[in-house]
Specification:
elongated, two-stranded antiparallel sheet, binds phenylalanine, seven-stranded mixed beta sheet, 14% strand
Amino acid sequence: MVSEDPTKKTLSELGVRDATELAFRFTGLRAQLQKELKHAKGPGGWDSLREAWVGSGDSVKSRITANWLRTAPDSLRAAVARDLENLINEVFVLSTVMRPLDQLRATQADQVAAQFLNVQHLFDTEIEECVDEIDLGVSRTFWLGRSSGVLTHITDSWLKTASPQLKRIVGAEFNKLKNYVETKIEARRAAIESGAEESALLRERVDLSLPGVIRPIGSHHLIRQVFQEIEDIFVSIGFSVVEGPEIETPYYNFEALNIPEFHPVRDDMDTFYLELPKGALTPLLLRTHTSPMQIRTMEKQKPPVRVIVPGKVYRRDNPDATHSFIFHQVEGLAVDTDITFCDFTGTIEYFVKQFFGSGVKTRFRPSYFPFTEPSVEFDVSCPFCAGTGTAASGGTCSKCKGAAWIELFGAGMVDPAVYGFVNYDAKKVSGFAFGIGIDRLAMLKYGIDDIQAFFQNDVRFLRQFP
Ligand code: PHE
């Protein structure tokens, strides 16, 4: 062998990982076999060649069995076994047909016939193994190939070297074998072809009695439906809808909203920061509210501003029936030269009545947010017990727990300090902002008692809100 003998290594040591690389290795071995066959001389030479390739001692065959076959990955084992079998067959065939008849000890007519029969048997074994046209093509070249097919070898080493008295019988046997090989290959080809046709027909057969493919039609998630409902209400009174990034910088999420670094309200928003490569220009976090879009909107446009911002927000929280680390808000912002506290409460009241029905009342209580001044918390009279705190059955209303009011959301007049961050003139403009928690609203309106149901994607839940 030119380089190191590959059969002494395992397939993984050789870096053989797939069928193509395996085939390449066997092609190399065949080339080596051809070379050694050409140089084999004398009976001893032929015998030792066979010994070296297919003998029971240390031969190519036994090394491949030990080093390749036994350690082959499952995906390659069958291919190794098959290629090895073919190689062994080739050694037998070629070392027979390339060796002159006298060295095969065939000096009489019946001995010659026996040698031809032997070759025919080897052919039979091989042709039976051909399962497709690729296999068959390889075998056809091996047996009938013009320059180094088996039959050409027989012509060269048996027919041409035959003694005058054996020539006629060798010629006759040769023609018989040639006919046999050609007929059998053609028959095999026809069989493979019709088999392929049959299985193609089988594959393509259409069963008209089968039911068609049913594609279930999806629907909007309940959260998406509530977003849509809220958007419709605000769009009808002149707001437009904008969306913003879920990954924010602390500047937009906090600082520009008048929440400096050590302000205690940040504790409520103790949250998800992204791990960034060293040297990143700014930390990044998942936004804890939709309020950063107040800043982004005002940076981009001059007053008047009237937008709502639906979206996902994130806060570190332990999941339970009323808490989730991901939830949804609709932010609202209106800024103009003459917006009053009356416009603010009127707008909110309009929205709440549209959403829960005209029978509800609203109220607000003082609250605190760093980016609104004054800040309020809006409540709605409980729509489920008509603000009585008593359920129709006479017991305590389960929705408001008897309180008659339900806390809705935070809001307020935009703090003048915020205008400073977006180059608005705080002396000339005024406005209001609000942040509606959608999940709670949807739970209230549709009687859902576990916020987790929104995120579990259980179709039995989702199907209830088509
Ligand atoms: N961003 C506040 C929150 O998530 C809600 C809010 C928005 C309050 C707008 C006032 C004005 O808690």
